Amino acid sequence: MTAVVHETEGLFGYIYCDFFQRQNKPHQDCHFTIRGGRWLQETGQYQLPVVVLMLSLPHPTQRAPTLLTPGMMENLFHEMGHAMHSMLGRTRYQHVTGTRCATDFAEVPSILMEYFASDYRVVSQFARHYETGQPLPKSMVARLCESKKVCGAADTQLQIFYAVLDQIYHSQPQNRSTTEILQEMQNKFYGLPYTPNTAWQQRFSHLIGYGAKYYSYLMSRAVASMVWKQCFVQDPLNREMGERYRREMLAHGGAKEPMQMVEGNE
Ligand SMILES: [Zn+2]
After folding, report:
1. Ligand 1: centre distance to CA 125 (Å)
2. Which of 107, 145, 160, 225 is 20 to 30 A (C-alpha) from 115?
């Protein structure tokens, strides 16, 4: 359990760090809330949030500590974005605190953290060779970041295609099979053609879990990119910007319209 403490304001909450693999543990990185924050009228104080940050990292061996791949590190940052959303929420009610917000906004804090995970000024704060203590070379981080952009356009196209498909599946009844719809939309929105006699939509659980809200991935990515560019690209470790981001976005949880927050309205 890790306490989240602010330099001057004190204790903010607790993160239960369940980082390592074990038998029967779901192999999916995630964040969930044990106790949400809320204003307690009786005591006039804030009920501190308690959340879990769950990963499936390999255990250290006799020869080496746990070493994270860039993907594992990015996931850790991503889930930490969700956890800090819960930590920094200061809402009146528990059901709208932290990540309990509009789906359109839910992935903004976590995707924003992925930008931090790809920035040398941030990565150089902690990434060291475990034996020599050498920091990660700047050129290596630059190459890694460049490699993430490979097929970026195709990836965005794919997300648009998924989002459209999800909208149609959940709109008015269609007198045709989900596979026929898939075929039509894939040909219309995605560069690669549909493969006959396949029906992957039946295995893509997000089309059910998100139920017409799959587009929020793209929406969150766009907003996170805007926040990164406007507030952090100049100086990712800027204290004032961090406080502003906390005050104007994270503190509100789901108690304020995301659009109002994005536009910076009071
Ligand atoms: Zn997420």
Report:
1. 24
2. 160
The rounded percent of the chain whose pLDDT value lies above 70 is 99
Separation of alpha carbons 249 and 253, rounded Å: 7
User: How confident is the model at residue 263, as a pLDDT?
Assistant: 80
Instruction: Report, as residue numbers or ranges, the catalytic residues.
Output: 79
Q: Is pLDDT above 80 for 266?
A: no
Ligand 1 centroid – CA 110 distance (Å): 6
Handedness of CA 102, 107, 109, 110 (dihedral sign): positive
Closest of 74, 71, 86, 29 to residue 53, by C-alpha = 29
Look at residues 142, 186, 141, 183 and name the one whose alpha carbon lies nearest to residue 163.
Answer: 186
Q: What is the pLDDT of residue 265?
A: 67
Can you tell me whether residue 237 is helix, strand or coil?
coil
Ramachandran angles phi, psi of 234, nearest 5°: -65, -45
Task: Please state the CATH superfamily assignment of the domain spanning residues 1-101 in this structure.
Answer: Collagenase (Catalytic Domain) (3.40.390.10)
